[in-house]
């Protein structure tokens, strides 16, 4: 339990925000077959094609 006592709300919030920013950056910058509809890394939804 000593490991968890070192965690604070600020650490958790910063980690969550960092993960969300990285996910959005991948969706915007990577091609659709990697991060997009039906992508293998980040699947953003059903492929309508």
Secondary structure elements and pairings:
Layout: H1 2-5, H2 9-29, E1 35-36, E2 42-43
Parallel strand pairs: 1-2
Describe the structure concisely:
This protein has 49 residues and is mainly alpha-helical. Helix content is 51%, strand content 8%.
Describe it.
- The chain is mainly alpha-helical.
- It is 51% helix and 8% strand.
- The protein has two helices and two strands, in the order ααββ.
- The chain has helices at 2-5, 9-29, and strands spanning 35-36, 42-43.
- It has a two-stranded parallel ribbon with strand order 1-2.
- It starts with a helix and ends in a 6-residue tail after the last strand.
- The mean pLDDT is 85.
Order of helices and strands: HHEE
Q: What is the number of strand segments?
A: 2
What is the percent of helical residues?
40-55%
Q: Identify the strand order in the major beta sheet.
A: 1-2
Radius of gyration over C-alpha positions, nearest whole angstrom: 16 Å
**How many H/I helical runs?**
2
Report the sheet-strand fraction.
Answer: 5-15%
Biggest beta sheet summary: 2 strands, parallel
Q: Give the low-confidence spans.
A: none
Q: Structural class from helices and strands?
A: mainly alpha
Average pLDDT, rounded to a whole number, is: 85
Question: Which of globular, elongated, flat, extended, rod-shaped describes the shape?
Answer: elongated
Question: Notable features of this structure?
Answer:
mainly alpha, two-stranded parallel ribbon, elongated, 49 residues
């Amino acid at each position: 339990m000593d490991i968890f006592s070192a965690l604070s709300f600020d650490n958790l919030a910063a980690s969550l925000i960092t993960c969300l920013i990285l996910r959005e950056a991948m969706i915007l910058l990577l091609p659709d077959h990697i991060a997009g509809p039906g992508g293998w890394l980040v699947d953003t939804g059903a492929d309508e094609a």
